[in-house]
Write a structure and sequence with these properties.
Number of strands: 12
Radius of gyration: 20 Å
CATH superfamily: Aldolase class I
Order of helices and strands: HHHEEEEHEHEHEHHHHHEHEHEHEHEH
Length: about 400
């Protein structure tokens, strides 16, 4: 199936599966334990239905919005994902260029395989850097300083990885960084000729922003779980988040929120935004779906935080439901990584084009001319008392 014949994110996922060796595909696709949270993150959108208003002039619809101090062409951006070199030799640069072409923000992960300065030089599009607090605190300080010098617009602290989740698919399929061939995975690698060719041509899978100080991979391949547990600081606290917010001094996002209490605490330490996320279902299985946390947190913090739904987005209507429930924007991870694996920069562009078109079409069908017109009157939970009365 060519990229042009991919009509939705699921089609891109199917193409990615054909092109990637099994360890790489299942690293994108998998979650923790029984993968309940992974599946629930998308399924939870089905618990909300849209309520269109008709006989409205929707001859033109405007998707533009402002979030994280950036003017975006649509209320959707690329969230932080690690080690893009695993999925395509175009790496993070391919995704960042695709985001810039669509006028939206690209988020670079600490676990990237491209230097943050190289991403900044490759595109003038808006960018956010996602940071972890390492046991080596000076490395975190250095990353913040480098982001400021490189012109990143926002900083994001991920808080849900003090301990690595139990990602059983990684163990089953032999996923390591850098990739290593085993008897179990030999046929899968052999069937992925294009990926293997580019791997042999450019086998550099280093974590480009941290290896000069934390070269844990220098001793050979290791599992992602082992890397996280060996390098990330388990003692991280709200004091550390406050320190980072002050050190950065700009739009500051905390990623991994699911409760009103944590969101209020985020406001108190100087955060300007929260990414409502369960880490793609890759950390604590059984954790609440991001979309289900949105309305309570919006009620709890009002307009004191920008809220971004991060998790489970596979359709433009998912974005519309989130916006109607109070989100300022949504971000995607797997959805664009499927595109990256399926066709590099062009594949990420295809993913963004599909979702942008779905958002625009759905907005018009709702009777809205702009994102600003979308509100709680356009969405209702399926088991709400109001709907039960109507029924």
């Amino acid at each position: 199936m060519s990229l042009k014949r991919c009509n939705n994110i699921e089609d891109l996922r199917a193409r990615a599966r054909r092109k990637l060796p099994a360890p790489m595909f299942h690293y994108i696709d998998g979650g923790a334990d029984d993968e309940w949270s992974l599946k629930r993150s998308t399924q939870a959108f089905d618990d909300y239905q849209l309520l269109p208003r008709y006989l409205q002039d929707v001859s033109a619809v405007d998707l533009r919005t402002r979030v994280l101090g950036c003017d975006l062409e649509m209320p959707l951006f690329l969230g932080p994902t690690g080690m893009s070199r695993l999925f395509h030799h175009g790496k993070e640069l391919a995704a960042a260029r695709a985001a810039a072409k669509h006028g939206t923000l690209y988020s670079l992960s600490t676990m990237a395989t491209t230097r943050l300065e190289d991403v900044a030089a490759a595109t003038v599009g808006p960018k956010m850097f996602q940071v972890y607090i390492f046991k080596d605190r000076e490395l975190t300080r250095e990353l913040v300083q480098r982001c400021r010098q490189a012109g990143y617009q926002a900083l994001c602290l991920t808080v849900d990885t003090a301990v690595a989740g139990n990602r059983e698919r990684d163990r089953v399929h032999g996923m390591t960084i850098p990739p290593s061939l085993s008897l179990k995975s030999f046929l899968s690698f052999a069937a992925s000729f294009e990926w293997v060719f580019n791997f042999l041509r450019d086998p550099d899978f280093r974590l480009a922003n941290v290896t000069h100080r934390v070269d844990a991979l220098g001793g050979g391949a290791m599992g992602v779980i082992e890397y996280v547990n060996s390098q990330f600081d388990r003692s991280i606290s709200w004091d550390d988040a406050a320190w980072l917010a002050e050190l950065w001094g700009g739009p500051f996002v905390i990623k991994g929120m699911s409760t009103v209490e944590d969101a209020r605490r985020a406001v108190s330490i100087g955060a300007t935004a929260a990414m409502l996320s369960n880490h793609g279902g890759r950390q604590l299985d059984g954790c609440v779906a991001p979309i289900d946390t949105l309305a309570p947190i919006r009620d709890g913090v009002g307009d004191k935080l920008e809220l971004i739904v991060d998790g489970g987005v596979r359709r433009g209507t998912h974005v519309l439901k989130a916006l109607a429930l109070g989100a300022d924007a949504c971000s995607i991870g797997r959805a664009y990584l499927y595109g990256l694996a399926a066709g590099g920069e062009a594949g990420v562009e295809r993913a963004l084009t599909l979702l942008r078109d779905e958002i625009a079409r759905g907005l018009g069908l709702l009777g809205c001319r702009s994102i600003a017109e979308l509100g709680p009157q356009h969405v209702e939970r399926l088991n709400s008392p109001a709907l039960q009365r109507v029924a």
